[in-house]
GDSL esterase/lipase
Amino acid sequence: MGHHCNSVVSFCFFIISFLITVIHTEADKTVPALFIFGDSLVDVGNNNYILSVLKANFPHNGIDFTDHKATGRYTNGKNAADFIAEKLDLLTLPPYLSLVKASNKSTSFLGGVNFASGGAGILDHTKQLFASISLDEQIDYYSTVYGELVNQLGADATQKLLSKSIFGIVIGSNDMLGYIRSSSTLPRNTTLPQLIDLMISILPGQLKRIYNLGARKFAFIGMGPIGCTPSQRSLNKTGECNEEINYWSHTFNERVKALLEGMKSENNDMNYSFFDAYSQLLDFSQNPDAYGFSEVKEACCGLGNLRGKTPCLPISLYCSNRSDHVFWDFYHPTEAAYRIIVDNVFEGSQPYAYPINVKQLAAL
Ligand SMILES: *[C@@H]1O[C@H](CO)[C@@H](O)[C@H](O)[C@H]1NC(C)=O
Ligand SMILES: *[C@@H]1O[C@H](CO)[C@@H](O)[C@H](O)[C@H]1NC(C)=O
Ligand SMILES: *[C@@H]1O[C@H](CO)[C@@H](O)[C@H](O)[C@H]1NC(C)=O
Ligand SMILES: *[C@@H]1O[C@H](CO)[C@@H](O)[C@H](O)[C@H]1NC(C)=O
Ligand SMILES: *[C@@H]1O[C@H](CO)[C@@H](O)[C@H](O)[C@H]1NC(C)=O
């Protein structure tokens, strides 16, 4: 048919095939959307919209972010959620509440959205302590988003979109921290093993709800060694880690791995990648040179012993070089540490990334 076309028609044909290629590429993008659930390790600003005491939208947070802006991220620059989106070639995900609170509701969730909230946990006790958006409430929000996608695309196209999407989950640390605080509403005689049992009894129902709302690819980032955060180290005279808390952080991770494996054996259309943040962070402390770190104990920003006694506040001291510190504040890694963590979430091999990494998960 080509020989019937004059040059104008050929040109139009070229433009149209170009457009079809572009649209096709978009539609076939390996991972069309990313949905993030979790706590302050991945909150990109949801807590700016709620009445929580746990906020990060003030200096020195964000000191290395675009325009040195404090956005609600609990770190000096980008956090894990930003790097995960970058790795997937997706635009940075907006915080869910920034969209629903916007005056114009022309919101699209086609590329995903971030539900994470600083202080969030698995347990209701944690919610009562930190007044954050609990994992249960985040899933409620996701359920609303799911409904909007079905309205917009229809049920089949929504399922197709969601089954290729990544569902990132980072949760559990605040349940542990809540337990450590004496103000928790947990019964006073609760032991750490009972706490872990409780968390592991609630989490499967939460993951199942996400699965029932279309999720098929889960990327779970496990708990770090909570006993080695500057906050916990600052309680020890010689700045050592709290080994008991570390033991139970590690145990939580092992139980989550088993839980995901069990979930996959019951639902063979689901796949997952679990990242062992525990081992990764311990490796930072044990081999700092290998990662370019020179300070693994002290927080960059904060006050008191190891700058681990307060959050990063406008009146806090802060370090001049954020790239050589593992910790930004008393609990949270620096951008430099998040970057390495997410590199290994995507490219790492066992035992860090189990049974596959997120790059492999995305390609399924
Ligand atoms: C809605 O808000 C977004 C972001 O604030 C803006 O970019 C967009 O132009 C607005 N749309 C309408 C229809 O006003
Ligand atoms: C904690 O103590 C209460 C009574 O004060 C008791 O009823 C409960 O069984 C105890 N819980 C555990 C886990 O031991
Ligand atoms: C400090 O930590 C070390 C290692 O975990 C532990 O053996 C020691 O008892 C701790 N000291 C104090 C005062 O907590
Ligand atoms: C997950 O892996 C299984 C094989 O174990 C495969 O049959 C299934 O299609 C995969 N699911 C997705 C969403 O890729
Ligand atoms: C900051 O730390 C990084 C990583 O250790 C190092 O490469 C860099 O040279 C340091 N910058 C300054 C100004 O000291």
User: Anything to note?
Assistant: The chain has two domains: 1-30, 33-363.
